[in-house]
Write the structure tokens for this entry.
Amino acid sequence: MEDVARIAGVSQMTVSRALRSPETVSAATRRRVAEAIAAVGYLHNRIAGGLAADRTSIVGLVATTLKNPLLASVVQGVCDAIAHTGYQLMLGMAESIEDEEQVIRDFLSYRPAAILLHRTMHTKVARTLLKASGIPVVEIGNLVARPIDLVVSFSNFDAAERMTRYLATKYGQVGYVGMRSEGDERFKARRRGYLAALREAGIAAEPERMLELPSAGPGGGGDALVTLLAARPDTRAVFFAGGAFASDALAECRRRGWAVPGRLAIAGFDDYESVFPSMAAITAVRVPRYEIGRRATEVALARLRGEAGIPRRTEFTFEIIPRETA
């Protein structure tokens, strides 16, 4: 660092600031420091810096899975927000709240600067650990009423309620296919939204029209559709509230020669059009996942900078995208 400072014509403190908090240094100074670093081949020892400050420059993101390609949009938003800030992303996967607790333990052992959580249901131990850590914690999977610290998200309840209302108004009897909601507030909220829309429309909720699957495996939506229609053949529309179930269902309808939406209307929760061309015809809820990931990171960084007036809840809106299937 002494060599870098001498070549750049600045103090060692300025070199440190250029590396740790580049926004606090002028562009010209950052450029001189970067040129000096390149000249001497210097690598900043972030571990030593973290030991001195009892905090590293790591921002942790605990996601549920990357099998859902739309979650990659969240990760991209996080990466774009921390680019050129001196912070680095650490990514962890946790498909259950028990797994999440262990990942949180592992992350906190690295003394991260902040943690982002896709899940919004946590074990009691995980909540205690995060609150005691004293770092910014941002939940992004659902707009919960009582976040651990901060929440940046949309309302899964409102999205499911609005889509179900849209289908019920046009078609009457609406079925529901989602994911099992144990330990996952997102799917509990979607189920509640579906039921709330039926009550509002004066339609009785019937267990035979509701299926919750254990996973988002391929073909699951098609099998669920066949099961649901066998039990209640008068169903006129089905809301697939998770994964790519709607695409599976549409393929099954085409295989059996069932007209969509003539025989049955189909709607999905996420807008997969940009990922799967086969879903370009499916009516869907569009969620700004990239923007949520980016804003959640910006909020965490603002807290780290000591900015005042940061809202505890930041709500994003969603869209209902009508297409051929409904």
